[in-house]
Amino acid sequence: MSQVEVRPLQVPLLDLQAQYRPIRAEILEAVTRVCDSQRFILGPEVQALERELAEQIGVGHAVGVSSGTDALLVSMMALGIGAGDEVITTPYSFFATAGCITRLGARPVFVDVDPTTYNLDASAVESVMTPRTKAILVVHLFGLPARMDPMLAIAARHGIPVIEDACQAIGARLDGRPAGGMGAVGCFSFFPSKNLGGFGDGGLVTTNDDELAEAARVLRHHGQTGTYEHARVGGNFRLDEIQAAVLRVKARYLAAWTEARRANARRYLELFSQAGLDGVVVCPREPDGTRHVYNQFVVRVSDRDSLRGHLDARGIGTAVYYPAPCHLQPCFESLGYRLGDYPEAERAARETLALPVYPELTAEQQAHVVRSIAEFVRGT
Q1: Which of 262, 264, 253 minimizes the C-alpha distance to 24?
Q2: What's the predicted TM-score (pTM) here?
């Protein structure tokens, strides 16, 4: 009798089909509404999404733009950051954080990360400030809010703004205050893998400042203030109507999806504790006063790449965020940074691994993930 091969339980890193199936009819209705209207750029869907997300996030203004990257770019342009300026930020983030600074002719000035949160180490920020420092760009990495109060205090003392890269942190809170609503301006991404993801690229600029909001609206449309009248040099950073319509549907489910992610994170912590996995450091934990939204659930081990291969062989999807910190990217070689300059960011880049945490993940799938990690740890 031939043996039947038994495939391990499959656990993808992200399952967008599982999210889409229950809301398919609503999504198609929204897209059809746009198609029937034949209005595709900066129409009623974008306007409605901006109103709804401003209220949902808890900010005065929300301005739809073409991507999270462009949200960062527009925000810095609105603040007047340009050639010769310096912006303090983290080396451990998606490339766009530092890339947008450089695109404007400014220089990213890096500060190492806190090893317990992976967010910017506030205690080191003031030591790198110079007369050319024009902003602090804080990243709420993986969905965990950074310690904003010390950075806001530093910024106030020096008369500069704080920009929040909240691209992974929609719905996150710090002492009840929303990510993207504490600094001068906040930036969000609607890339499909985000907690609130579109059917393509999209982003959002948030602020409680009327003038900054108006500047963002003007800059996203080539700096246009009237028909073929351009008060500033902006760009084509517009969010289109189809993306806005899709996001309006999905935003209604965001709170429930976020709670499911948080429940999955709690289950992971319980399973790790029960398994006695002392060789795996689950990080970042959720500090008191914070509401983590777990765009990623990250573990760290010294032999990360071997663990990733072990999990892949057992049908478990993972991802590495980010294998090379920004200061070691080839395009920033001229800035003069070297290996060893930011040891915590470099260690995180070597050791961190993101596990599946999407809302539809089942308890059985999570148990399979933890069992497989336990096998690896005990085997090594």
Answers
A1: 253
A2: 0.96
